[in-house]
Write a structure and sequence with these properties.
This protein is of the alpha+beta class and about 675 residues long. It is built from 14 helices and 19 strands. Strands 1, 2, 3, 4, 5 and 6 form a six-stranded antiparallel sheet that branches. Strands 13, 15, 16, 17, 18 and 19 form a six-stranded mixed sheet that branches. The longest helix has about 70 residues.
Length: about 675
């Protein structure tokens, strides 16, 4: 056989280590990467949520500030004293004093609906409603938020390539946002009444209006987690977005409408949270959005809300992952290189000892045993050589045991096949009889009632035979499983024997056999389960009747004295067995001897094994399932008794001895001439 070279072993070892280490390293890198990504996402979630809250608070304060400044300006005493020709100058000065987010300030004559002063041209910024304010105001009445009329001014949609490019989310994508200023966002237009004193009352004369675009952030530079601002009305209308083409559209028209609706619903319910968006932009960039809700500045309805979103690109939020990926890549390359170097040195130290052990293992089977290689520099290899030597010795021993076990398995398989054939025959015979007898009665083939009863009786007998077979199988199964239970009590063994004989007498008389019984005697008391003991007697008597074609069956009962050491399964408890002085026990022995076919000596012991009969020809001729004696032995062993069998040979009859310890002294001592030798001693069959 070609030996493996040292270099080949190194390559194999190297590949195995790499196959093990590289996936581990990759898994570690992936876990680290996912952990870092989760951490960055959590940071982005918190920052965007906080940013959305801040943006919402800014817009809310902006709206309140506009209302407050507008009301203050409309009630300014200077406006009451300035001549109409000086209104333009006054409005220009007022526009400079107001906050910078005010884009336009106009004073409109409500009688003529003409703009008489403006900071952004003569085109009205709002269509003023009729009869919104009372015509006359009492002196003590002050204006409040309810006196302010509010509307939205939508930006003019512009066409051209410049607008088409504004679909991304970074600062570089909105480089012209500062140039367009507030023209690209929805504006809030507020109007407040101006009352001019006319005599004792104040008459409604003018309306002071201002326009201010939403203070929103229109860019989100890379690395920033503040995000750009998107505002959505409660009904789903987009109020502010870096892309002017989106302003005024409803979120139902967006590709990610379901997620946007979910944001609106949660925000209206009072939530401040974080959500992924996948298709809010035309180029399909994945986005992260924090959101919060504020009361709508454009309506006086209490439940009307504006939803403010802080939106950022996912790759911007995860920009720190690039550095982490580079570090992890360098780490993996270094670890793989270190693994290769370590493997090269390791393989050199492992190759030679393994080759020696391999050569020894290859020669064990084909050549004479040699000393196993030892004295390696590595302790584990020395232990391996000792284990290999022990293993070889053990394998040789187990090979011999396996050969014996194989033969036993073949015998067991043969016994199984014989049992299956026998038991199928034993079950089929009474079952066919039951079916046949019942079918004859059912079809009305009987001549009279007596014949019907005869067939039914035969069916009943066959049923009982079938039941006995099934009970035997169940009993041996319970015995094998350790669930076979008995109820031990004090009983007269002679009475149990008589009951069993009475049940078998009809079969004995039917075959014309002579039955020899012991003479009446005093009770012999034993500690046993009466039903199980009767079952043992019935099994033995049934076999005697079955295998005896002609002749006799002799039943005898005798007492004998046994030493404690000779008792079956050890000595019985003193409370259960009558003991003589000197540590001796009294036993009762029931012998059932027949003049039947007998059993060859080599087959006698195996008859007490489950599913075993003498041979196949006997089974085919006399029937049986091979369970009776096996069950009987287990029962007797459980009652601290014994059952043995003796036969001089084929056609020389069989004697079965059933023994139990006596519970108390019995005055009966009976013996039969056929069990006594010429010298007057009892014959021993055990």
């Amino acid at each position: 056989m070609v030996k493996l070279g040292q270099s080949s072993f190194r390559r194999i070892l190297l590949s195995r280590i790499l196959l093990l280490s590289v996936p581990v390293l990759l898994v570690g890198e992936y876990v680290t990467y996912r952990k870092a990504r989760s951490t960055l996402l959590e940071t982005a979630r918190q920052n965007l949520t906080e940013s959305a809250v801040r943006k919402a608070e800014t817009i809310e304060q902006w709206a309140k500030s506009l209302k407050s400044n507008l009301i203050g300006a409309s009630e300014n005493s200077m406006l009451q004293s300035v001549e109409p020709k000086d209104y333009q100058k006054f409005i220009a000065q007022l526009g400079q004093r107001l906050p910078a987010q005010v884009d336009c300030l106009q004073l409109t004559n409500l009688q003529t609906n003409q703009v008489i002063a403006s900071t952004c041209g003569q085109q009205p910024i709002q269509s003023l409603p009729a009869n919104f304010w009372p015509k006359v105001q009492q002196q003590q009445t002050l204006l409040d938020d309810k006196s302010v009329y509010i509307s939205l001014s939508w930006p003019v949609q512009r066409q051209g390539k410049a607008n088409e490019k504004k679909m991304a989310l970074g600062a570089e994508d909105f480089s012209d946002a500062s140039k367009e200023g507030r023209d690209s966002q929805v504006s809030l237009v507020l109007s407040a009444p101006v009352y001019i004193r006319r005599g004792n009352s104040r008459q409604l004369s003018y309306a002071l209006s201002l326009q201010s675009a939403l203070p929103v952030q229109t860019s989100a530079p890379k690395g920033s987690l503040a995000g750009y601002t998107v505002a959505i009305d409660q009904d789903g209308t987009i109020l502010a977005h870096p892309n002017i083409d989106r302003v005024g559209r409803n979120i139902d028209a967006e590709a990610d409408a379901d997620r946007l609706k979910s944001i609106v619903k949660r925000a209206i319910a009072g939530g401040q949270a974080f959500l992924h968006l996948f298709s809010f932009e035309k180029n399909g960039v994945e986005l992260l959005a924090g959101y919060a809700a504020i009361p709508s500045p454009s309506t006086k309805q209490e439940n009307s809300k504006w939803i403010i979103l802080a939106v950022s690109r996912l790759d911007y939020a995860l920009s720190g992952l690039e550095e982490i990926q580079q570090v992890l890549f360098n780490l993996i390359v270094g670890l793989v290189a270190a693994s290769i170097v370590a493997t090269l040195y390791l393989s050199r130290d492992l190759a030679r000892p393994l080759e020696k052990l391999r050569d020894y293992a290859l020669k064990v089977e084909t050549e004479a045993p040699q000393a196993v290689p030892q004295n390696f520099q590595i302790r584990e290899f020395n232990q391996l050589s000792e284990a290999l030597n022990s293993m070889v010795q053990g394998l040789r021993s187990r090979a011999r045991e396996l050969e014996v076990a194989t033969k036993e398995a073949q015998v067991a398989n043969q016994l199984k096949n014989e049992f299956l054939g026998n038991i199928s025959h034993e079950l089929r015979t009474p079952l066919n009889g039951i079916i046949g007898f019942i079918q004859i009665v059912r079809d009305g083939y009987c001549d009279d009632r007596d014949e019907e009863m005869e067939f039914l009786q035969r069916a009943h007998d066959s049923s009982m035979q079938l039941l006995n077979i099934i009970n035997d199988i169940l009993d041996i199964a319970k015995i094998e499983a350790g669930t076979f239970s008995m109820m031990l009590e004090v009983v007269d063994i002679t009475q149990v024997l008589e009951d069993a004989i009475d049940l078998q007498t009809p079969q004995i008389e039917e075959k014309g056999l002579k039955l020899s019984l012991p003479e009446p005697h005093d009770p012999i008391i034993v500690h046993a389960d009466p039903e199980k003991l009767k079952q043992v007697f019935l099994n033995v008597l049934s076999n005697a009747v079955k295998f005896t074609e002609s002749g006799s069956i002799n039943i005898s009962v005798r007492l004998e004295v046994r030493n404690n050491s000779a008792s079956f399964n050890g000595s019985a408890p003193e409370s259960a067995i009558g003991q003589d002085q000197g540590g001796q026990n009294n036993w009762v022995v029931v012998t059932i001897k027949d003049t039947g076919i007998g059993i060859a000596p080599e087959h006698q012991q195996k008859l007490f094994q489950p599913f075993v009969m003498a041979d196949g020809s006997t089974t085919r001729k006399f029937g049986g399932n091979g369970l009776g004696l096996a069950i009987s032995r287990r029962i007797m062993e459980s009652m601290i008794g014994s059952i043995t069998l003796h036969s001089a040979g084929v056609n020389q009859g069989t004697a079965v001895m059933i023994s139990l310890p006596v519970n108390q002294q019995s005055s009966f001592y009976f013996h039969s001439p056929d069990l006594v030798t010429e010298k007057g001693n009892f014959k021993s069959y055990e």
